Automatic annotation (TrEMBL):
It holds the Pfam family DYW_deaminase. Gene3D superfamilies: Tetratricopeptide repeat domain. Keywords: Repeat. PPR repeats lie at residues 5-39, 107-141, 177-211, 278-312, 410-444, 512-546, 613-647, 648-682. It comes from the Eukaryota. This is DYW domain-containing protein. GO terms for molecular function: RNA binding; zinc ion binding. Residues 828-920 form the DYW domain. GO terms for biological process: RNA modification. InterPro entries: DYW_dom, E_motif, PPR_At4g14850-like_plant, PPR_rpt, TPR-like_helical_dom_sf. Belongs to the PPR family. PCMP-H subfamily.
Length: 920
DNA sequence: TTAGGGTTAG
């Protein structure tokens, strides 16, 4: 090649870089290598910059590095600097640092590039250290250096240092007053000192667009959404110019407060201002949708984006991963490699996050290999993502191995290990990792503490580990952190000590929303639903707005207690507060309607199929199942598949229980067989219980027994209880005895074992055994959970026990009962005394049946609610067979719809028939 | 001097 040609190569290459055609520049380099072109330092520096800016595969930059060494251009300051910057971009600061040490000549850009690397790697102290060295060595700072140092002061929350730096800047006359003020605003914003930022802004004589953007951002970063919006309105009023940075800042706040209504408003404004096509703005919108859980909105927006860059693609991978759409994330990742042919370490990190469960471990391993092959193994963020990926998949040995060979570990590495041990229920290991972290001299942060606390879940753990850690938290001052406070409340509750949880909560001087939510959830999980709802009231009275978490806990409490009116009011509040677009909240509301018997409302608020989440599909299937609409449940499952939604283990629990309640034995067995082979969902104990129920109810008791022998998981109490209940239906004394023994083996104090077994014996007429069992219960001090039914009328709940006589309207209730007995007998009702569980004469047996709580509740409902209105009755135990028959007759005679809910499902009676077709 | 993607937690 001649000199002239070399020069033209140079010109071409710099043309590509100037024109930002980075991938062309890289292709050009390949040709150049083949042609053996002699290169200049400038050309190589441009090329490295091209690799850097294109976000290309890391390997291409490495190739250039090798070439540069070979041709002896490493001493060139521009080449060295661009390579150093390149390593920094990929998070490989130690490599960058090594280059820096070896360089014979350095300029201000060299220094600044390494500082940027340290800054991106989270090593703020190193940045300041280097700034001080620069001043010692009299290297003159440029604007970029100053900007970086000031930003770092913000990150370090070191206002004093920031002011010193600014003093130096003013002294050297490097900047104007406006830009000094702007920098100050930004620094105060990062330090969390919004007040001071506003003071500087308000005192400024002159403001430019950046000043306005900085003050909006300072408020936005600190979660002050109303304030940032106030400045924005003011800006539009007096300043006129709004640019893409302004809009991006406003969108950031909408993500952090997770209020989609707000984000939608800003989005409208974005469209009006014509800034929607700006790539930064677009990327902010993608993040907003992702954080609000609306990955489908993000997806369609991405498709419409006129300009996309690497960050847009990375955002989509992250969006799918964050929304637990692993398969979609990996498919998108594959598309990305095909379409734009580039990726960065962020891409790999996000793709790894999508593999954080055992189902995708194979893909995760491939990505691990990709990271190694790309030379990005030493990147600390990738290392941390790998630790997380293995840890969340339960492969802790591999997670630990990755962490040991990492060149450097930070608090994120240790937090991931501690958190994954906790998630895998290895409390001791979690605590061990915490101690090792401290030994290694890495300081814990609030996330460390939150993770450690998450490891404790038993009373024993609480005594031996939880309480000492609590003492440590108080000693180290972490007890003032809102997340730590919340975790402490949750830990005490999880370890069974709700009393201490409440004590902690009551003792807090400032109670934030998340703290309220923690104590409310703690009560809900302990079955204290009424208390949880009372706390919701108190929270509102304390002037706090309910958020998506408090609303969904409250809705699920209403669902568990089956109190429709409260549920409806909460749903109203959801709409009023603007959470109706929040998938999670809306799904909880839907579940509430389903569990309160309002199938029509479930369908009313159901979203259209193309934006339905897996959770919505699952709730819909289980609602249909609970209401006895088995065909609908099946159709919904088919529709779900048609729309490309993958069923998960909850889907199959709903589907199998639908089959079991509907007597669809063969269909249920088919689903069970296909779940692993066709859908990759391995059967868990819940599914096995459904199958045993399915076989048992239909009378195939020996098949059920065989199934238990071959189950992939060891049987638990639910398995034996279900089998025992089926033995009662089909009067199988022998197997019933076996199941009851197994149940008592697991828990000798289980009351259901005694009760169900004595019922099996009673139904089979073995009154001698019944007597035996009852005596045994008495001597073992085991009490039966008393049956009760309740009705809500005129805003009051009336609860009835067996033979209840204490109701103020007692006389009218029993008069009504007598009348009912007479009329239904005339209509053809014949008593079935096999449901009487006490050995007396037939007449007494019938009398005892009329004492059942569900009949008393029915009589009360008939006299206390308006004629013709639907009746809603709830029972804590399964309805008795003879009562079921009474309800059918009554519904035909009084011409009213009667809904009866037991702990498992609904019976809808009308015109003498029941929705369950007498199979339950 | 202002804005967008990533790892732990929520």
């Amino acid at each position: 090649m001649s000199e002239r040609n070399d020069a033209s190569w140079n010109t071409m290459m710099s043309g590509y870089v100037r024109g930002r055609e980075y991938s062309k520049a890289i292709e050009f380099f390949q040709e150049m290598l083949e042609g053996g072109v002699k290169s200049s330092g400038f050309l190589m520096a441009s090329l490295v910059t091209a690799c850097d800016k294109s976000g290309s595969m890391f390997g291409e930059g490495l190739q250039v590095h090798g070439f540069v060494v070979k041709v002896g251009l490493m001493s060139d300051v521009f080449v060295g600097t661009s390579l150093l910057h390149y390593y920094g971009t990929y998070g490989l600061v130690s490599d960058a640092h090594k280059l820096f040490e070896e360089m014979p000549e350095r300029n201000v850009v060299t220094w600044t590039s390494l500082m940027v690397g340290h800054s991106d790697g989270g090593e703020s102290e190193k940045v300041i250290e280097m700034y001080r060295s620069m001043r010692r060595e009299s290297v003159c700072c440029n604007e970029n250096t100053i900007a970086l140092v000031l930003k770092t002061c913000g990150t370090l929350e070191d206002e004093l240092l920031g002011l010193q730096v600014l003093g130096n800047v003013v002294k050297s006359g490097l900047d104007t007053n406006v830009s000094v003020g702007n920098s100050l605003i930004a620094m105060y914003g990062s330090c969390g000192n919004v007040k001071e930022a506003c003071r500087v802004f308000n005192d400024m004589d002159e403001r430019d667009t950046i000043s306005w953007n900085s003050i909006i951002s300072a408020n936005a970063q600190n979660g002050l959404c109303e304030e940032s919006l106030r400045y924005f309105y003011w800006m539009r009023h007096v300043h006129k110019e709004v640019n893409s940075s302004t809009v991006s800042s406003l969108l950031t706040v909408s993500s952090s407060v997770d209020n989609l209504k707000w984000g939608r408003g800003i989005h409208g404004l974005v469209v009006k201002s014509g800034l929607e096509s700006n790539v930064c703005v677009g990327n902010s919108l993608l993040k907003m949708y992702s954080e609000a859980g609306r990955w489908k909105d993000a997806e369609s927006f991405f498709q419409r984006m006129p300009q996309k860059d690497l960050i847009s693609w990375n955002s989509m991978v992250a969006c799918y991963a964050q929304n637990e759409e692993s398969q979609k994330a990996l498919n998108f990742f594959a598309d990305m490699r095909r379409v734009i042919k580039t990726m960065s370490y962020v891409t790999i990190t996000s793709a790894l996050a999508a593999c954080s469960n055992l189902e995708f471990i194979a893909e995760g391993k491939i990505l691990h290999a990709v990271a190694v092959l790309s030379g990005l193994q030493a990147n600390i963020v990738i290392g941390n993502a790998l630790v997380t990926m293995y840890g969340k998949s339960g492969v802790m040995a591999e997670a630990r191995k990755v962490s040991t060979i990492m060149p450097k570990r930070d608090e994120v590495t240790w937090n991931a290990l501690i958190g994954c041990h906790a998630e895998n229920e290895e409390a001791n290991e979690s605590l061990k990792a915490f101690n090792m972290m401290r030994k290694e001299g890495i300081r814990e942060n609030y996330i460390t503490i939150v993770n450690v606390l998450g490891a404790f879940s038993t009373p024993d753990c609480l005594q031996k580990q939880g309480m000492p850690i609590h003492a440590y938290i108080v000693r180290t001052g972490f007890d003032s952190d809102k997340f730590v406070q919340t975790s402490l409340i949750t830990m005490y509750a999880k370890c069974g000590d709700l009393h201490s949880s409440s004590f902690m909560f009551d003792g807090l001087s400032t109670k934030r929303s998340i703290t309220w939510n923690a104590i409310i959830a703690a009560n809900a999980h302990h079955g204290c639903g009424e208390e949880a709802l009372k706390l919701i009231m108190k929270m509102r009275n304390a002037g706090l707005l309910l958020d998506q978490f408090s609303l969904s806990v409250a809705l699920s409490v209403s669902a568990d207690l089956a109190i429709l009116e409260e549920g409806q009011q909460l749903h109203g509040l959801v709409i009023k507060l603007g959470f109706e677009l929040d998938h999670y909240v809306t799904n909880t509301a839907m579940d509430m309607y389903g569990k309160c018997g309002e199938m029509d409302d479930v369908l009313r608020i159901l979203s259209p199929p193309f934006i339905r989440t897996r959770l919505s599909w699952n709730i819909l299937i289980s609602s249909y199942a609970r209401h006895g609409c088995f065909n609908k449940a099946r159709e919904t499952f088919q529709e779900m598949l048609k729309w490309g939604e993958k069923p998960d283990h909850v889907t199959f629990v709903s589907l199998l229980s639908a089959c079991s309640h509907g007597g669809l034995v063969d269909e249920g067995l088919e689903y069970y067989a296909s779940m692993k082979t066709k859908f990759g969902v391995p059967p868990a104990i819940e599914h096995c219980v459904c199958i045993i129920d399915l076989l048992g109810r239909s009378g195939r008791l020996s098949d059920a027994e065989d199934f238990i022998k071959d189950m992939p998981v060891p049987p638990n109490d639910f398995v034996w209880r279900s089998l025992l209940a089926s033995c009662k239906i089909h009067q199988n004394l022998e197997l019933g005895k076996k199941a009851a023994d197994k149940l008592l083996e697991l828990d000798p104090s289980d009351d259901s074992a005694y009760i169900l077994y004595s019922n099996v014996c009673a139904t089979s007429g073995r009154w001698d055994v019944v007597e035996n069992v009852r005596t045994k219960m008495g001597s073992n001090n085991i009490k039966k959970q008393p049956a009760c039914s309740w009705v809500k009328s005129k805003n009051q709940i009336s609860k009835f026990g067996m033979g209840e006589k204490s109701h103020p309207q007692n006389v009218q209730i029993y008069a009504k009962l007598g009348e009912l007995m007479k009329t239904i007998r005339e209509a053809g009702y014949v008593v079935d005394t096999s449901y009487a569980l006490q050995d007396t004469d037939e007449e007494q047996k019938e009398q005892n049946l009329w004492n059942h709580s569900e009949r008393i509740a029915l009589a009360y409902a008939l006299i206390s609610t308006p004629e013709g209105s639907p009746i809603r009755i709830f029972k804590n135990l399964r309805v008795c067979g003879d009562c079921h028959s009474v309800y059918k007759f009554v519904s035909g005679i009084v011409g009213r719809k009667i809904m009866l809910r037991d702990p498992f499902r609904f019976h809808h009676f009308s015109d003498g028939k029941c929705s369950c077709s007498d199979y339950w």
